[in-house]
Amino acid sequence: RRSACGADSSSLTCVTDLVLTVDYLVTWLKIYQRVDGSSFYEKIFEKTLSGFVNEAFVLQDDWGLLLTAGVLDSGHGSNRQDLYWFDKSGHLKGFLPLLGRGPQSFCTAVLDRPRESSKSFPVDFQEGLHVFFADG
After folding, report:
1. What is the pLDDT of residue 136?
2. pLDDT < 50: residue spans in the chain
3. Is 88:125 a contact under the CB 8 Å cutoff?
4. Burial level of 70, CB count in 10 A (0-12/13-18/19+)?
5. SS3 for 77?
6. What is the pLDDT of residue 12?
7. CB–CB of 28/49 below 8 Å?
8. β-bridge pairing 64-73 and 52-59
9. How many beta carbons lie within 10 A of that of residue 83, not counting itself?
10. Which of 50, 57, 89, 97 gets the most CB atoms within 10 Å of its CB?
């Protein structure tokens, strides 16, 4: 769950991202609450994944949603998790299979090149949103 408040053209609005999971089903909702007390929700998407959802992380600035889902193999004591990245339309933007045992502890940062020309960066440096996590 992630909340943010801001002013729109009519009134102060708080937005809460809520990710609900039941078995393999994931539902992402945005709940809007106005200063006058009225509220409404918007269903962003609903998906069925190939395992039980272990973690959900709403990315900043509408970049989408990260999910880890997996199946616990009780016979061998292993836990395989896959990482999914969905955009707001519910389209799969990225997939990273076979992560280790969680939690993954997601953290994000927007990286930009400094304006000083004295700084040198590797040729493959990419500006934008970067996601860091612990692959157990």
Report:
1. 47
2. 136
3. no
4. buried
5. coil
6. 58
7. no
8. antiparallel
9. 23
10. 57
Rounded to two decimals, what is the model's pTM? 0.74
Distances (CA, A) of 81 to 55, 70, 102, 111: 10, 4, 8, 27
Spacing of C-alpha 74 from chain mean position: 28
pLDDT at 99: 80
Closest by Cα among 135, 30, 48, 35 to 88: 30
pLDDT for res 92 = 94
Query: Count of CB atoms within 10 A of residue 29's CB?
Result: 16
Q: What are the start-end ranges of the E strands in the chain?
A: 2-7, 12-22, 25-34, 39-48, 52-59, 64-73, 78-86, 92-99, 107-111, 128-132
Element containing residue 112 per DSSP (H, E):
none
Cβ contact 85:91 at 8 Å:
no
Find out whether 99 and 81 touch, Cβ atoms under 8 Å.
yes
User: Nearest-CA neighbor of 101 among 51, 69, 52, 135?
Assistant: 135
Six token digits for residue 38: 């009225």
